[in-house]
Structure formats: C-alpha cells, structure tokens
Task: inverse folding
C-alpha cells in the first residue's frame, strides 16, 4: 500500500502536469498566468497597489527598518559562514556531532511525514520575504514591475519583481536596503512564531501515544491512538525516556494505573516482544507532548499545530540567515556585489567569483559529507 504522504506528493505532481498541459493548450498567458515546468505565476495589480500603499504609510519607519536590515546583514552572513565552517570541521574531526545539511527534496532528503508542514513553512517564508522586498523597493522609489502568487509542485507563496533597470540606478544604500530586508523579515517573523509557541504551549507534561498495539495490553484496557500518558503508577512520564524508565522497574504481568487525558486505565503488562524480561505496555511511536495553555481541542490538533510552528520557526530563521550567504543567486551575493561595485575600481569580477566559490565550497562540502555519512536516508 502506498503511504498517504507519497499519495499526496503523487497527486500534487500529477495535478501540476495537468495544469502545465492545459496552460499550453489554452494559452493561460493571455490571462496573466505564466506557467513554466517549475512554477506557475499569477500576476495581480492589487498586490502592486498594496505594496505602494503600505510603503507610503510611516515612510520613516520603513526606511529605519531597511537600515536595520543593512546593519544586520553582515551578522547574518557571518553566522551562515561560521555555521557551515564549524559544521564542516565537525564532519571531519567529530562526525557524530555534525548537523546534516541537505537541499529540501521531499521523499529524498526530507521524509514525506514532514511534507505538509514543510509546504506551509516554505510558502509562508517565501511570501513574507518577497513582500518585504516589495514594500522597501516601493519606499526607495524602485518600481515593482509585477507581483502576485507563485505556485510550484511542492510549495506556494507570494512574489515581487522590482524593475532591474531602476534598481541598478538607485543609490547604493537603497539597493542594500531592498536586498537585506527580506532576510531580516524572515528572522524576525521566525522569532515571533517562536514566542507564540512558547506562550501557547505548557511545559512538557506527557507522552503522546501515536499508536496503540493491536491486541496489546493498552488496547485491552481501553486506551487508543492519540492518548497522552501523564503518569504510570503515580510516576510522572514527561517524555518517552521517563516512560521507559518506569517500565524497566515494573514486573511483567503487573497491573499498573496509567493516567491519561481521558482518565485512568488499569493495564496488565505483558512481556516486551524485544526483551521478555521487560514489561510491555502495548504502546509505540511515543513522542513528547506539550498541551495548549488555553485548553485542548484535541491531542491531534495540538500535535499538528506544534509541528507546524516548529517547522515555520526553523524554516524562517534558516532561510533568513542562509539567504545572506554570499553565494549566487542568493541575496547575500547581490549585497556583497553591490558593495564591491561601489568600492573597487579593478578586479570586481575575480573578487565576486572568489567569494561565491568559497561559499560554494562551504555549502557543497557540508552537503557532500552529509550524503557520505547518512546516504539518502531522509530526515
């Protein structure tokens, strides 16, 4: 049987192929819809107007925000370079402590389990990033030629296209503000989502049971998938580690009280299939669980909300920082290029190439060593 996540991915790719074929047959471009094999763009003047109006409100604040982006950009570049260099060092000397660095390829480098959360996180990150570029471009009198919504086989989001000719003629500081503000916005939005998550969820208090073993002792006692175990025999179980520790002290065949969000169950333990000397509760695929402070709708909803927020924070912050890496075609490379263009009379092209090659070595080395160590096993 094909896993649900793979079915969703197959459906999206099939739908994408159908849309592309229809666009060729009915000439979608006449309706302002640009369809390419890798993306679909819907241009709308309403978004252009929104960007112009937004840039006219509190213009001094937008300029200060752009200046903040320029000031923070070197720090983001340094953080990106430092992480990649330090991680490369760990891969070589202490590989077990290195973090995997991979491109986002659902089903290849990223498990399809995370696909829905990744879809939301990347779409949101792209949208706030592009809108920030658009507002500051309008504030700096660089016209936005087009704006709208972009769809790709595995994500979606907003886009803006400032006039390249007018951008090139703008003062240096204006260009730097436009380039830097997207990454700054990603990082700040990521921090906001982190604060929301910290405020919304209580400290870890239980273990979420993703699967109750069919015919096992927990099922016989009335427990079911998505139950949360808060304590066993009065011993708190704030994580799977504590739950396993309690079971190691429990005799096989003992009757234990299991406290859950649906009440207390009396479970008769059996021998663990992996180790007959250990008690078996009949639950598997357990995860840490933090309830919502405002009250539960359902444990499933809380679990998916927590994962969504976690992915949004991670994607926002990572895109914000690594987008400023001076590597073509990232914003960081354009930022450095525009600075060097104003400062160097000779040797601009070799310097630009050297910086990109160095960044490529840092990024490529991490990706290559990740594949060598972990293979194509998705995260």
Result:
């Amino acid at each position: 049987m094909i896993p649900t996540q793979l079915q969703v991915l197959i459906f999206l790719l099939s739908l994408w192929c159908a849309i592309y074929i229809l666009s060729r047959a009915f000439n979608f471009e006449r309706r302002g819809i640009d369809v390419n094999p890798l993306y679909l763009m819907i241009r709308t003047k309403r978004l252009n107007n929104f960007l112009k109006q937004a840039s006219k409100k509190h213009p001094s604040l937008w300029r200060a925000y752009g200046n903040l982006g320029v000031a923070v950009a070197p720090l983001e570049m340094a953080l990106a370079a430092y992480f990649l260099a330090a991680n490369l060092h760990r891969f070589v000397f202490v590989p077990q402590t290195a973090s995997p660095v991979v491109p986002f390829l659902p089903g290849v480098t990223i498990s399809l389990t995370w696909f829905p959360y990744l879809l939301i996180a990347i779409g949101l990150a792209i949208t706030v990033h592009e809108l920030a570029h658009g507002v500051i471009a309008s504030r700096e009198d660089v016209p936005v030629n087009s704006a709208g919504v972009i769809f790709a086989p595995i994500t979606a989001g907003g886009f803006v296209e400032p006039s390249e000719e007018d951008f090139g003629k703008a003062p240096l500081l204006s260009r730097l503000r436009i380039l830097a503000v997207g990454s700054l916005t990603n990082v700040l939005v990521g921090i906001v989502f982190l604060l929301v998550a910290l405020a919304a969820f209580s400290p870890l208090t239980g273990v979420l049971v993703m699967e109750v073993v069919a015919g096992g002792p927990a099922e016989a006692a009335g427990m079911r998938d998505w139950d949360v175990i808060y304590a066993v025999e009065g011993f708190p179980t704030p994580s799977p580690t504590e739950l396993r520790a309690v079971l190691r002290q429990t005799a096989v065949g003992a009757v234990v009280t299991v406290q859950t969000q649906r009440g207390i169950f009396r479970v008769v333990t059996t021998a663990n299939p992996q180790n007959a000397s250990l008690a078996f509760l009949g639950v598997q695929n357990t995860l840490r669980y933090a309830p919502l402070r405002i009250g539960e709708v359902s444990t499933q909803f809380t679990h998916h909300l927590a994962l969504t927020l976690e992915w949004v924070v991670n994607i926002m912050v990572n895109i914000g920082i690594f987008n400023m890496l001076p590597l073509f075609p990232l914003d960081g490379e354009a930022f450095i290029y525009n600075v060097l263009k104003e400062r160097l009379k000779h040797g601009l092209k070799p310097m630009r190439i050297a910086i990109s090659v160095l960044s490529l070595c840092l990024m490529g080395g991490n990706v290559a060593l990740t594949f060598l160590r972990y293979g194509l096993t998705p995260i």
Summary: The mean pLDDT is 89. Residues 59-93 form the longest helix (35 residues). Residues 37-200+307-374 form one domain. The radius of gyration is 26 Å.
